[in-house]
Amino acid sequence: xxxxxxxxxxxxxxxxxxxxxxxxxxxxxxxxxxxxxxxxxxxxxxxxxxxxxxxxxxxxxxxxxxxxxxxxxxxxxxxxxxxxxxxxxxxxxxxxxxxxxxxxxxxxxxxxxxxxxxxxxxxxxxxxxxxxxxxxxxx
Length: 139
Fold this sequence. Notes:
The protein is built from five helices and six strands. By secondary structure, the chain is α+β, with helices and mostly antiparallel strands. The chain has one domain. It has a six-stranded antiparallel β-sheet with strand order 1-2-3-4-6-5. Strand 2 (31-35) and strand 3 (38-43) form a beta hairpin. Helix 1 (4-16) runs parallel beside helix 3. The N and C termini lie far apart (46 Å).
């Protein structure tokens, strides 16, 4: 079984390999991932993951049991997720990917077909698809 540190290292390597992603130290410790000037999320050394979404996306993720409200910013679009196992690390990677896709799609950097294929791979619900795909459909 991997340690939390090993799982976070693996998670880091996966996310840092995505197109346009930069990995930087987070101001409160841990590692932050940015797409241009926009943060797609960060994790802390103890396995706590914080990811920004819109409030609507956050609400769907919480309703589906995929995340919890942010541990401090309860009324924001931020979510918190805890990595304690390899299954948790896979779920965290999915959450980071959803954040990434939402931000990339909003900037017109992904074709609708590519976005939908990625969402298929993530087994995104219809509710998540409607909110993430909306920026692409609107263009």
